[in-house]
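G.,

No rush on this.
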Amino acid sequence: MDTVLDRPLTTKTFLAWEDRQEGKYEFDGRDVIPMTGGSVAHQVIVFNLLVLLRRLLPGQPFQTLHEMRLQTGPRIRYPDVVVCAGPLAQSTRTLTDALAIFEVLSDDTATTDRVDKLIDYAAVPSLRSYVLLEQTAVAATLFQREPGGVWIASAHISGALVLPGADITVSLADVYLGLTFPA
């Protein structure tokens, strides 16, 4: 952060501050967290996921976005990939709603993604799926719920993920296309 603040941030003041920055930052309701770049595996997984989701959702009222700012109560997060219901204005800078969220795990972010973001994303009433994707192996954890309900987790190392709400099936082989992992 290039500014020393003399008072605690609110979500509103954080958003105004971040809009003036060159980089991206998350806000956990108290602290500003700089976003860093990911590995090649991270980038390949995100790219494959975007291509796959756009192919699976043509002509449907969903929008698939990459690293789009999402407000969850007082917190601001940047999911790797988010699927939103309905068309969005091109000028939209902050999402407040989502149907599915995908995060690619790394050593630096795994605990935050598995614990803090799971709690944060629970505050998004329309969210039906939260998917954690490993980048060191073909493996995914799918958290799913009915709107406002409890999370039900399932682990996957092959096959496909069925995303409720969007009624699509995401093949793990397609998500990890082009990557190889030691046996």
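When you get to it, here's the other one too:
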Amino acid sequence: MSEKKQARSLEWKGKTVTCGHCAHELFHYRRAQLNTKLASLFNMDWANKNAHCYICANCGHIEWFLPPREQN
């Protein structure tokens, strides 16, 4: 069985991120695909953008961030 990754503090664009629900400062990281109806209709989900997701290690609330180049 693999060992769980350690929760870490997060800084985004020069600011320390805290959970929007419980104000905790440690997060687990995942990426999530931002699916669109059109891409899914044509089985092209692979072409959709991804977001960075940080899951609060205390309450499970998810903070989502688009990579800086995709924020337009």
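The CA atoms of residues 19 and 56 lie 6 Å apart. Residues 23-70 form one domain.

Enjoy the weekend,
O.
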